[in-house]
Amino acid sequence: MTKRLAEVAKKAGVSEATVSRVLNGRSGVSEATRTSVLTALDVLGYERPTKLRGERARLVGLVLPELQNPIFPALAEVVTSSLAQRGFTPALCARTIGGVPESDYVEMLLDHQVSGVIFAGGSYALTDASHEHYRRLTERGLPVVLVNAGVDELGFPRVSTDDAVAVEQAYGHLRSLGHERIGMVLGPEGHVPSRRKLDALLQVTSSTEAENWVERSSFSMEGARVAATKLVERGVTGIICASDVLALGAIRAARRLGRSVPDDVSVVGFDDSAFMTCTDPPLTTVRQPIETMGQAAVDLLVSQIDEAREFSDELLFEPELVVRGSTGPVRRE
């Protein structure tokens, strides 16, 4: 009991005596302090006293696939801030290589009796991944929102960037610069947003041969370097990438082959994550409206929690092409 009091007091930033007063329902504690103590109790995984169990703090899980890609910390900042403004306590769960899998995070969030969960870039976006933990959320009737495209059969509402528009913008930009041999570096087979981007490429080119100028990669810089190397060696002069991280890998590939960016090869990213203005050259990319999407995801979740409204639709947000130094006119031989 003493250990629990000390941990909760440290988490809430109050004295052990204050924690004791809250847990015993005594007066002399402000409502803000009382809420802080009860939230700390929930976050640490301790059971509330029986008489306080009906007042569980409103926790919301935010599950991210990683934090190395700057786009995910940017989304987390928007979502956690918006949740706090709506009276919810965000619980951030970020996966790492060899760390806690997404399914275990779901179990932990269920144990903490969260009010809902927002996922970004999870296994819901992979057709060949296990989705059993999502079905557990459905069975519990827990409100869920997915950020960006996922498999349709899960039935959760989604807040997505319009991948078709993103490809149209990137492809149109490269074509306006005179590029005809345009390739693409996408995520793995079965990655739904990548599948959408490929479908859009085939649509704008009106040619099934365009698929021959597409390479798959893990969402890593080194994976993209390997994929882009194959495209450059085939004579591609413009490369559209499914993320900024992949685009940086493509630039590295071109340079290792002795090519200049953008003089020999133009590269377009996707996300417009932090520091893309500071790369060499600054990256031309398709910007996801992360702030608007993050707020929309919170709005959808809160509507489900507070109003018991049901959603299964997908909200599509239009991206914006941001032209910088990694694209230029095709070199005329």
UniProtKB/TrEMBL annotation:
InterPro entries: HTH_LacI, LacI/GalR-like_sensor, Lambda_DNA-bd_dom_sf, Peripla_BP_I
Keyword vocabulary terms for this entry: DNA-binding, Transcription, Transcription regulation
Listed GO MF terms: DNA-binding transcription factor activity; transcription cis-regulatory region binding
UniProt key word Lipid biosynthesis: no
Keyword rRNA-binding: no
PROSITE patterns in the record: HTH_LACI_1, HTH_LACI_2
Domain HTH lacI-type stretches: 1-57
Entry protein name: LacI family transcriptional regulator
Organism whose genome encodes this protein: Actinoplanes italicus
